[in-house]
Amino acid sequence: MQFADQTMSRELLTALLPDTDLSQLVKFATNNSTALLWGIIKGAGIGWSPTYMHVIGPKMVPLDIDAIYPFDIWLAYHPDAARVPRVRRLIDWIIENFDPKVFPWFRDEFIHPRDLPRHYHGPPLINLFEGISWDHGKI
Q1: Residues with Cβ within 8 Å of residue 132, at least 6 apart in sequence
Q2: Three-state SS for 106?
Q3: CB neighbours of 4 closer than 8 A, spacing ≥ 6?
Q4: Are 54 and 74 in contact (CB under 8 A)?
Q5: Please, which residues have CB within 8 angstroms of residue 60's CB and are 6 or more apart in sequence?
Q6: Distance CA 9, CA 11 (A)
Q7: Residue-wise pLDDT tens digits, 45-104
Q8: Mean pLDDT of 6-20
């Protein structure tokens, strides 16, 4: 399974599996992270997800294949927008929620998903997928 081109997943897969015809390997590609996650959970195949998915979402088994791909997260805004109090509050809230001191999965160094609970000391986490039935329908 593959995520959309904006993540360079095709290039990363080609580098990881240089002698593999990706058209024979990748049978599902999407630009929707929820659809990709749903496919992984439903057993449609394997795919990659952010490491934090293992602490805020359904149980998945991480594969140790020595393929670690960091992605930068950018927050861009016009400097004038930050002068508007409600916008400034939103900017500050976003920055707080991506703070690597609180949320270890946003650190520059890789932390294996199995080790994240030991490194996380912030407020209780919410399973963002709790209550969503993954058993309806068939792929």
Answers
A1: none
A2: helix
A3: 29, 30, 31, 32
A4: no
A5: 40, 41, 49, 53, 54
A6: 5
A7: 888 788 888 787 767 788 888 888 888 889 999 999 999 999 999 999 999 999 999 999
A8: 78
In order of 97, 104, 121, the CA distances from 101 in angstroms are 10, 6, 9
Taking the CA atoms of residue 56, residue 58, residue 64 and residue 69 in that order, the dihedral angle to the nearest 10 degrees is -50
7, 48 contact by CB (below 8 A)? no
pTM for the structure as a whole? 0.71
Asked whether residue 32 is domain-assigned, the answer is yes
Residue at 128 is within a domain: no
**Total domains present in the chain:** 1
Structure tokens that stand for 48 in this block: 């990659």
